[in-house]
Amino acid sequence: MSWLFGYKSKVPPQGADGAPEPPGPPPSAAGAGQVAGDVNLTKAERKAMEAYRFDSSALERAAEAARTLERSQHAREALELSKMQESTRQQEYLAKVKEYEAHIETSKVEQKRVDHEERRKTLAEETKQQQQRAQYQDQLARKRYEEQLAQQQRVQEENLRKQEESVAKQEAMRRKTIEHEMELREKNKMKLLEAELRAKAKVDRENRDLTLEQIRLKAEENRITVMEGIKTAGSVLGQGATALLTDWNKVVTTVGGLSLLALGVYTAKGATGVTARYVEARIGKPSLVNETSRFSILEALKHPIETAKRLKNKPTDALQGVVLQPKLEERLRDIAIATKNTKNNKGLYRNILMHGPPGTGKTMFAKRLASHSGMDYAIMTGGDVGPMGRDAVTAIHKVFDWASTSRRGLLLFIDEADAFLRKRSSEQISEDMRSALNAFLYRTGEQNPRFMLVLASNTPEQFDYAINDRLDEMVEFTLPGLEERERLVRLYFDKFVLQPAAEGKKRFKVEQWDYSTVCSKMAKMCEGMSGREISKLGVSWQAACYASEEGVLTEKMVLDRCEAAARQHRQKMAWLSEQEKLDHKSITGGKGFLPQ
Length: 596
Prior knowledge:
The protein is mainly α. The protein is 66% helix and 6% strand. The protein is built from 18 helices and eight strands. It has helices at 29-37, 43-50, 56-71, 75-206, 208-246, 248-282, 297-302, 304-312, 326-344, 362-373, 392-404, 431-443, 465-469, 482-502, 515-525, 531-547, 555-575, 578-583, and strands at residues 289-292, 352-355, 376-381, 410-415, 451-457, 473-476, 509-510, 552-553. Strand 3, helix 11 and strand 4 form a beta-alpha-beta unit. Helix 11 (392-404) packs parallel to helix 12 and helix 14 crosses helix 15 (515-525). The longest helix has 132 residues, at 75-206. It is elongated, with a radius of gyration of 64 Å. The two termini are 123 Å apart. Mean pLDDT is 80; it is low at 1-37 and 588-596. Its main location: mitochondrion. It comes from Anopheles atroparvus.
């Protein structure tokens, strides 16, 4: 309602000290004069006089405004509006008061949170300080303990050093004492020996005449004895020669006896050699033969169980359990059937060359071929011929003589035959090796009904032409293809994993997984590997199972071993030099394989 009194709801201006300044001068003249008179008053006096000052014009304006308001038709609405504005301002003031109180409460809560956080940080810092203090104290205690141990060790070492020095001094004193005693003994011995020699020399000088006389008497007796023996022997021999020469029958008897004695000596020597060769051919085996299925008394005594098993074994199919390319299998089957019929009909055997990368089954097929045909087999290595030197020729002749005595027929398998059957024209070979090659050519010049020759080589291009001329069949064994590898993996997985697990061996169990899918996957991983390498992979599966803690073979273990084997195979291939790659042309060959 301030507008009724002429203030127009404006806040009077305040001075610098916060007190309201006096209102402006009134428009009347009297007011102007009064203001002019108050100019010289102080600020405090002016404020004191302000309370007693009255503005009459304000009353007039208020009366005029009241009359105007009474005459207005909206007077009541204006009054209500003014009341509502005042109520709104009071509510706004209360809301601000509540907001201020809420702000104060929030500030208190925040202050409490800050205090709590500070206390927590203080406790954490105190805990940290205590831990550091405890650690530091522990370090100090440990350091003191270590220093005590070091001090004790130094004391012990010092005591030990002093003891060693004392022992060394005592040992030196004892050694000096012993040396001094030995020196004294030696001096005493030398003095005693010198005295004895002097006494002996004195006695010898005194008895010199007697000694010379004894020597002369002994020499005279010895000479007389020798002369008597010579005379007696001469007389006996002279009488015997006279009696022999004068009697013709005695001369003939003597000559005949000496002749018969010489004949007996040479006959016994020859008979002994013949008997030894016969015994070696029938009972033993030549030194060049490493393995044979031929029965011998010595081998039967050394290995009775193996000999009994070999005698009980019946002829089997040459390709039983063999994984081969169909064309190669057909060809080897024809060779096996022809060899068996040749043996039954006592025909001439044909010589065969089997060549290809290592581990493709050449040796195994030779054994199977001999067993299928009912023949004995003997295995020798070409590398054993070279170290024998000049004895190699005799050894080769013994092998063929031994092979010719077999009643069942013998399949002579020479592994790594290129080691001593090299070309004589281009290869630099020794005279002993050349002689051994010539002896081999001499014994194999014609086909024989007693033995069959089978050569195996990884580099057949190194053979001498005369060796190639003696070969009737040449069979190439190449690396297995994908289908053959898969069959081999399945074969060895069954042999080395499933069968031992089914037998219930200790620490050998197999986890359940899709064996067929895993075998197919491993066959693809084993590209380029030979049958021997795949068989070794089967052995590595067993080793992985035995090395595990629980003795259980898992799919991951099988695949890891297969991957490791493939990686090692690639490394071996990378190690081959260019010359080795040229020599082993079939190292990445086709599909044929015979398992070991």
